[in-house]
Amino acid sequence: MKPTELTSKLQGIVGQKFVSDDFAVRWSYSMDSNIFDSINPTPPAIVVRPANIEELQKILFLASKTTTPVYVRGGGTDAGGSRGERILESILIDTTRMNKIIEVDEASQTVTVEAGITWGKLNKEVEERGWRLGFKGPYSGYSSTVGGSISVQSNGYGSARYGVCAEDLMNLKVLLPDGQILQTGSAVNPAARRFYRYCIGPDLAGIFVGSGGCFGVIAEVTLRMYPKSVKAAFGAYGFKDYESCQACYYRWLKTREADHIAWFAEDGLEVNAPELSEDGYISLLTFAVEDQTPELVDARRRLLEDIAKEEGGEALDSEKYAKGDWVYRFELLPRWAAKIGQWQWNCHMIPAGDALDDLKDILSLLKAFKSEIAKYGVKHSTVSIAHKNAGHVSTSLYYDQSNPEVVSFVKELSDKYAERAITKNGGCNYWIGKMWYPYTIMRNPVYRETLTRIKKAIDPSNIMNPGGLALPTDLG
Amino acid sequence: MSVASKRILKRRKGSRSLSDYKDDVYLCARCGYCRDMIRARDKTAQVCPIRENTGGFESYTARGRNIIARGILEGKVVPSSLSTEFIDSLYACTLCGSCQEHCLALDERSWSRFPDNKFSDHKIDILGINEAMRSAIVEKGVPPGTIRQVLRNLSLHGNAEGLPRSQRDAYAEQFGFPVKRAKDERCKTLLYPGSVASYSERSQRTIRAIAVILRGAETDFCILGSEEEDSGADALRLGETGLFEELAQRNIQLLKKYGIKQIICLSPHDFDTFQNDYPVFLGEQWTELKIKVQHYAETLLNLLRNNKIHPERRFSKMVTYQDPCYLGRINGLYNAPREILRRVTDLAEMKLTRHNSFCCGGGGGGLWHDPLDKPRLETERAKQACATGAEIVAVACPTCAKMLETGLSSIPQCKMQVMDIAEILLETMSFINEPASL
Ligand SMILES: Cc1cc2nc3c(=O)[nH]c(=O)nc-3n(C[C@H](O)[C@H](O)[C@H](O)COP(=O)(O)OP(=O)(O)OC[C@H]3O[C@@H](n4cnc5c(N)ncnc54)[C@H](O)[C@@H]3O)c2cc1C
Ligand code: SF4
Ligand code: SF4
What we know:
heterodimer, A: 476 residues, Uridine Diphospho-n-acetylenolpyruvylglucosamine Reductase, domain 2, Vanillyl-alcohol Oxidase, Chain A, domain 3, 21% strand, B: 438 residues, Rossmann fold
């Protein structure tokens, strides 16, 4: 079908106002927040903004009938480069009008939302009803959506205690590529509430976690809720040697009592708290705890404080170094980026006990490139955010994206970083995208073949983000 | 000059070429906070009023426009290929500044102020980028028809609506006392109603209220009358830099000729332009005149604080207040109008207020331009005002007054009325009905 015909059919579904094939409109969707899109922006053929699941379903019926590729986009903050190969021919479905709370179900202690809701809105609405989320959203939470985060298995605020976003996931309602509606978890039983994930049969929700929009469109998401917290406490500790810091970090994670733990390595301090570097610190560890009674908060805080003292941490001003990250959550990274320019991250997971080895290796890689880093004016800040039994390790490379030479250097450095983190240090990516495929999916034939089979079964015409997940564009 | 004022002036550097905004465009990390932010801590509920009330595509938002601007700078998007649909959306933006206010690309030196940052701390000059894109559109001669007409009117008649210059000071007939004209009598303080208020029947009451209060406080002031020129604020915001410069030159000559040392502006848009655009576009030519620019909210508050005027009774109706974008968000004047109101009445704030305030829809050309998707911001804002339960929505801007009156007229069940802060203040003073005896 010609694009103009498709456009008018889509207009019939969502109304004229919410469909556009205008070049400038399409171009404004040509980039997400990552280096791949900076280098190679890809505008879709048509943009459509459905308001509800019924419209979404009709769009997928149309796409599947006409075998038109579909790219789903939530907040567009994807940092890993998850766009596939056929964006230029695709209908881009912008999910951000589907942003409502469907139900806060006190009986099952869950909240069900449309997938285009942002974490900022969801946190606010849940808290207004006397509850809170465990995982509160990635650092981009004011603009990233619940559906997008599940599709790239985000971690972030609350991960130290509650894990990545999908760990509180109960049910999904997914639009399959042919427009059929798949319900996962307890809601498969029409008589049941949406309260439990692991039931009925195999956990089909898992297929869509980290699927990068390749298997279907997540339309509704049910997440677990927790009682609203009444108090929060914070701690910040400086370390002058890495080994003590690692010991403290490891023990803090093991307690599972902190809601948030961040470890800023020496380069992170140089960029973000130079006064601590000047005082001889090479690491800063911070925690945040919140809970439903002050007594619980104080008990958890004391436990973490005792560990820090035992491991030789020097107590620093927690108001200054720890509280802001938690209280002004979602507001930190954009501020850091503004110091220099665009960011490039290689966030990966590493077991709690191996964090230091990975971190030191990463720092040595950065040191090996010291002169180029200086030449191109790149700044870097290495941070580890705890995730239950693992640490996410990530170096933010801040660079001037207006200079193509700088961009290509950062891309090269970032590739080396990813390869080293995965193949040498045993790290594991949680984001999906071009940044990681060469070292993960593409290196494991059985995993890749299995993924291809699932893709063929669910999406035989290969319309959902073709080429995404490094799957072949021709499924054969 | 402080760091902060340098930043705000950067946007106002005497150029509107997109290439001058390259740093800003490339500083954008595409986080999307300029289009979506629901933030419990400060009650941010929505950022871009246009995104919320149109098709809401990325191209309507700062992030999307930055991506397009970047495409233009890299030669991937050819400006002449930009469609009327896009141009229309570019002019649908009311330049309300909310996106810039919520962008977290903050000047590092201002981090110590976080989260109480000033508008000028925001490093990416989103409004400047829009205006630079508009300039390119004007250069190509393809702005929307309504905007072309406004620019033509400004050029030929010195006001956006093309009304005769002879009627520009018709408002003075309502004063009930003779007012000084700069051409007849020397005076240092100029009351500058500006184009929107001068020709608006509604705002004539506001001009009178200010004039009566100034006179009651024995302030020596004058008007330019039919000689008054448009400040050029609209020309600049709409992308017609050349016309702005022409109008600014005419103003400079007049102000110089009459030895004016202080301008009291009615419109926050004129206030903003005299205060922030004139110094950078005209440089020393302007600064050497050493003219103090004030919005009348500050003037009236000073009179109150210095006991030059004395409210004698409370204003009996409950009031809510509309922050004009170019007074509040962009120039940080949130408190002066509120302090005036609080001295004489009870104030019920709207949900979206101060830096989160919702634009009346009149800025950036919105007073005249009727974009394709017809975002009715004036109705939306009027509804928000009505929801406070107040009887009066107080304004401090003639554009807000016009827009909110239109908005309220489409909500018959809401009996709220629009009043200017000066009108409210005047009602509490006894010389209200006796101007001639002053
Ligand atoms: C400032 C900043 C900070 C960040 N911090 C973090 C962080 O702390 N942790 C972290 O994990 N990530 C982080 N990221 C990366 C990114 O923001 C997150 O991964 C986020 O969860 C992506 O959500 P989104 O709605 O923006 O997704 P999008 O970018 O819109 O989409 C991401 C992927 O999901 C797919 N997708 C989107 N919606 C759906 C849907 N409804 N159904 C099916 N597929 C869908 C898309 O096709 C795409 O492949 C950050 C990014 C930025 C810009
Ligand atoms: S303009 Fe600011 S808020 Fe908007 S996407 Fe760019 S960096 Fe983020
Ligand atoms: S200036 Fe106002 S209307 Fe224009 S894009 Fe920014 S928030 Fe939207």
